[in-house]
Amino acid sequence: MFPTATKEQGSLYNDGGDTIPHDIDHSTGVAQAELVADKLGQSFFQQGLQIGSFGTVEDPCMVESTLGYRIVGCTGGEGGEEHDIAWFELHQDRPCLCDVCGQYFELQATAPPNVVVPGVAQDVH
Q1: Which of 16, 39, 55, 60 is geometrically suited to a Cys-Cys bond with 103, CB 3.0 to 4.6 A?
Q2: Backbone CA torsion sign across 24, 27, 33, 35
Q3: What are the extents of the domains in the chain?
Q4: What is the pTM of this model?
């Protein structure tokens, strides 16, 4: 069996070396925040279908992103206006028009959600 580091040696846990660490134990950044949010039952990324009015130049369909871009799938309007899904990349400051139905999309930059992990000190910059 391999030796296991203790808290005094810098490890966050001492499991006796009998288990494999969970992804949360060795992930960082956005990946860790997503795993923690999932564990706490919170939403980190918008994963559902965004439904709203048909996007026009005057009133675009706003799509949120924390990364400055997002992959978007357009299915057109409701009823007879629906079409097969058309995929495209939407980038900050570069609105996009769906080639199939003409729906207008713009990216809205948002900050990542602040996921607070109980019992863990938060980084203060």
Answers
A1: 55
A2: negative
A3: 7-39, 61-109
A4: 0.59
